[in-house]
Amino acid sequence: MYLAIREIRFSKGRYALIAIIMLLVSFLVLFVTGLARGLAYDNAASIQNMDATHFMMEKDSNHRFTRSQIGEQALGQANQVVGEKNAEPLGVRMTTVTAEGAAGKLDVTLLGMRPEGWLTPAAVEGSALNPQDAGRVLVDRKLKESGVRLGTVIVDQASGTKWTVGGFVSEESFSHSPAVILNLYDWRQLLLKSSARLAGGGAGDGTTYSAIAVKATKNQAERLAATLSDAEVVAKSDAVSAIPGYKEEQGSLWMMIIFLFIISSFVLGVFFYVITIQKSSQFGILKAIGTRTAYLARSVAFQVLLLTAGSLALSMLLVQAMAAFLPAGMPFRLQASALALTSGAFIAMSLAGSLLSVWKVARIDALDAIGRTAA
């Protein structure tokens, strides 16, 4: 694109200003995208990390783990349809704990799991969860910032139950609170101690779970749903969306991102439209000497593509540099797939913004342009 590059080289200041604006807008788009992805992951990391495809939950619980209560009977039904290896009981409860050596109270989410099952995450420090070690738990590494260490005793305020921290896990949280992972024995003891707070069958004998996590094909999920009378099968994505505050938080952030896309497309479109109007005489003369409209349109589109790609590349470097200096507790996550998708959408919106200029180039009449130049 000889003409496009020659114009940019001739008017460096003008195109540099457009590139700076594109750089700032694309940086903001990528940063807010990373923040949205980071908040989404922090809100549901423990559920998203699970290999489950579906969850069995109590009917009328609105797909929420903290509202659902499901018993051993449902676990037995899941075992019959998907097999014992593909069904795991899961307990979820949000609570407040105090910890020795830690200042103040800590909001955490208790997750009850089979230590030998596929739901339980691997310990990154300390030793793994063991079904024989009553009163020993794994906690998310974020709790280290609050003074929790290996061997620290934490106390549940609601039930008075005490556990000892035996290991740390990485990136395990639910509804923005760090996870505390118990074995099923401790989960049942917790339910027995606080059974007065629970309602419904099964709570009294400590065999109530929040959900049954299953690995199932679509046909198995439909067969399982058909066998249940007081429970339902929920897809993993629906269970994640039902976490309190998840949809509202993500909706606000994605609305900001969409508006940033629209603003960037509008700003770029206006800039190039004004430039095209200023150059209408030159375009007319080029048409008069035989330059095709398609060539001129491609030249304008190439300029937009060049400025957008260059600005985007610089903004990626800036975002990566900024991510390296963000505080450890700040949820920011921009994976390669999200980066590629956002960049592709940004380029597409920028090219869409150039269509007005392309339309203007197509409507320039060579004779009129020559007449204006002669006058």
Automatic annotation (TrEMBL):
It is found in: Cell membrane. Residues 255-365 form the ABC3 transporter permease C-terminal domain. It is a multi-pass membrane protein. Keywords: Cell membrane, Membrane, Transmembrane, Transmembrane helix, Transport. It comes from the Bacteria. The chain crosses the membrane at residues 15-36, 253-275, 295-318, 338-359. InterPro entries: ABC-4/HrtB_transporter, ABC3_permease_C. Its main location: membrane. The keyword Transmembrane helix applies. Pfam families: FtsX. The complex is composed of two ATP-binding proteins (HrtA), two transmembrane proteins (HrtB) and a solute-binding protein. Part of the ABC transporter complex hrt involved in hemin import. Responsible for the translocation of the substrate across the membrane. Belongs to the ABC-4 integral membrane protein family. HrtB subfamily. This is Putative hemin transport system permease protein HrtB. The lineage of its organism: Bacteria, Bacillati, Bacillota, Bacilli, Bacillales.
